[in-house]
Amino acid sequence: MESLSQYLSPSWQQLLADFLEGDTFKKLDAIVLTAYDMKTVYPPKQQVFAALNYMKPEDVKVVILGQDPYHGEGQANGLSFSVQPGVKLPPSLQNIFKERAHDIHINPSSNGDLSSWAEQGVLLLNTVLTVTAHEANSHRNWGWEQFTDEILKKISKNNEHIVFILWGKAAQNKQKIIDTNRHTIICAPHPSPLSAYRGFFDSAPFSKANEALIAHHQEPIDWDNNHK
Hints:
Its EC number is 3.2.2.27. It catalyses: Hydrolyzes single-stranded DNA or mismatched double-stranded DNA and polynucleotides, releasing free uracil. One of its GO terms (molecular function) is uracil DNA N-glycosylase activity. By secondary structure, this protein is α/β, with parallel strands linked by helices. The chain has one domain (4-216): Uracil-DNA glycosylase-like domain (Uracil-DNA Glycosylase, subunit E, 3-Layer(aba) Sandwich), CATH 3.40.470. The protein is 34% helix and 11% strand. It contains 9 helices and 6 strands. The strands form 2 sheets. It has a 4-stranded parallel beta sheet with strand order 3-2-5-6. A two-stranded antiparallel ribbon has the order 1-4. The longest helix has 16 residues, at 23-38.
């Protein structure tokens, strides 16, 4: 019998075993698989956990937390804010690249593939991991929030120093489950055109994240995805 958990790598399956075997995930699993059968849902099933599958839990260094996947055709690929090579940049990603250029002087790129960040231990996570085509936030309150809470709790508890970059209200609400004494939290409004001018621009998340990593004797992130 199919379960979304089959698309999750063994190291994360092991970490999240208790949650995956519980009622909340079983209900979520059934609802989401039914949605895939009935409607167009993004990202493809095999990519729902792509952000997690890029790394083992102990290798997470930075978490960038968004809201839910892009809902346009061919956009969502399981990494928050990222799109496949050749896909037109969504407005939120354009704004991320504008802020990156201002913050650390990396020229904006037409390449929206952020997998080079993931390969360095940047967990590009949304609070909700699936969405119905053309219906933003349509899978809210299905149980994904509890699943991603569990991920954040485990990382907060088990990892030594993580930089959590929380963009938008849905992401910032997660602060309460993160141990702020052990980890660095960087908050800003969501980079979407609706809110970017309320404080996302000039928030300097890339330089702040690297400063925090260096201060804790960790390798900084190469935020330039242009050479991917």
